[in-house]
Write a structure and sequence with these properties.
By secondary structure, the chain is an alpha/beta fold. The chain contains 15 helices and 17 strands. The structure holds pyridoxal-5'-phosphate.
């Protein structure tokens, strides 16, 4: 009943009109954009909000006494409040803007890691992590002589929770896992993962990489119990170059700055500098005001569509595309967890993913090929790479039909 209701409220043709790029052509064919896990397209409201900022109130923030600077400062702060409400943080003081999920994780690794990880300590991640949630921890372990431990993944692409429990020890300082896998689409039980860690030791710092989650599902950082939660604006219909680091205020207050310079200080003299309060302590230099304004508009857009409608549309696309793909001889879907977001990776026997991607591009279909920044996962699965299609709520069943036809033709040419 709820589904039928939501479906009626969702008019994909109208939604698509909000995204100018979806009406364009690629290689002479209507663009079919199935690389949403890499970056999403932007609605007119986001594009216009950024244009309006530059046309009407572009100014540096927090310093100006004049009207447009005050307006720009207000827009920046109101964007933080919007993000805070969007993920149910306790306060907008817990929202730090970065360049993206990658920089957010690096900030935690450098700042929290500097004071809290010591020789022999252990950090737990998983086999399905994006490089952004692997390399910063590897480097921290090198700096500190700490140990990186890795939760294995099953053949269907799920985390082995029994193994995770065995990895936890008295030396565990950090657990950092992805909410949704960008390669497999698996939705990880992050709330359970965190409560297991906290039951072992409440001081274990639990980090969730939400880069693939915040636009698919309603995230409540307090309900999940995350100490830190990170994501990127550009994957959630907002502009590039802006990311979010949510951190519990007590942790952020105790952490040293990540970068230093203007805006993050309270007082500066040549003998001593004192630092600003959070979140400013972590935002050295002129921030990306345009990004904050665009992200604010992107959240408004997501809220106007609603997560119920997003879920219904994306689930239908996932199910339909999975069924159609499974009908193709020699094609294997990589990642068949019961609990999946609208991301499908696949391989075709004897064929190179890159070649398939190039031929699909000729038909106007944009997909991602390769390792998807998850090289250790590819090694574990003993495959060189996959073709990945990832859907947003603005994609359609008709587009999937175009893709499947183009894929069959590509396979015919390559075999
Ligand atoms: N984490 C996951 C799961 C991702 O999919 C990505 C990007 O694809 C990142 C982190 C890094 O995001 P960004 O490149 O926006 O910093």
């Amino acid at each position: 009943m709820q589904d039928t209701l939501t479906k009626k409220l969702f008019d994909v043709d109208n939604i698509r009109k909000d995204f100018p790029i979806l009406g364009t052509f690629s290689n002479g064919k209507p663009l079919v954009y199935f690389d949403n896990a890499a970056t999403s397209q932007k609605p007119v409201s986001v594009i216009n909000a950024i244009g309006d900022y530059y046309r009407n109130y572009n100014a540096n923030i927090h310093r100006g006494v004049y009207s447009i600077s005050i307006k720009a400062s207000d827009a920046y702060e109101s964007s933080k409040r919007k993000v805070s409400e969007f993920i149910n943080a306790k306060s907008d003081r817990e929202i730090i803007y970065t360049r993206g999920a990658t920089e957010s994780i690096n900030l935690i690794a450098y700042s929290f890691g500097a004071d809290n990880v010591n020789e022999g300590d252990e950090i737990i991640i998983s086999e399905m992590e994006h490089h952004a949630n692997i390399v910063p921890w590897q480097e921290l372990c090198k700096r500190k002589n700490a140990v990186l431990k890795v939760i294995p993944v099953t053949d269907t692409g799920e985390l082995e929770l029994d193994e995770y429990i065995k990895l936890l020890s008295d030396k565990t300082k950090i657990v950092s896992v992805g909410h949704i896998s960008n390669t497999l689409g698996t939705i990880n039980p992050v709330k359970d993962i965190i409560s297991i860690a906290k039951a072992k030791n409440t001081n274990i710092c639990c980090i969730v990489d939400g880069a693939q989650a915040v636009h698919h599902t309603k995230v409540d950082v307090r309900n999940i119990g995350a100490d830190f939660y990170v994501f990127s604006s550009h994957k959630m219909y907002g502009p590039m170059g802006t990311g979010v680091l949510y951190g519990r205020a007590e942790l952020l207050e105790a952490m040293p700055p990540y970068q230093t310079g203007g805006d993050m200080i309270e007082n500066v003299s040549f003998s001593q500098t004192t630092f600003n309060e959070i979140p400013m302590k972590f935002e050295a230099g002129t921030p990306n005001v345009e990004g904050a304004v665009g992200l604010n508009a992107a959240i408004d857009y997501i809220n106007s569509v609603g997560f119920d409608a997003i879920y219904v549309q994306e689930s239908e696309l996932l199910q339909y595309a999975t069924e159609k793909l499974m009908e193709i001889n020699g094609l294997r879907v990589i990642g068949t967890s019961q609990n999946k977001a609208s991301v499908i990776s696949f391989v075709v026997k004897g064929l190179n993913a890159f070649d398939i991607g190039v031929l699909l591009d000729g038909s106007g279909v944009a997909v991602r090929t390769g390792q998807h920044c998850t090289e250790p996962l590819m090694d574990k699965l003993c495959i060189p790479g996959t073709v990945r299609v990832s859907f947003a709520f603005y994609n359609t069943i008709e587009e999937i039909d175009i893709f499947i036809d183009a894929l069959k033709k590509a396979i015919g040419v390559l075999q």
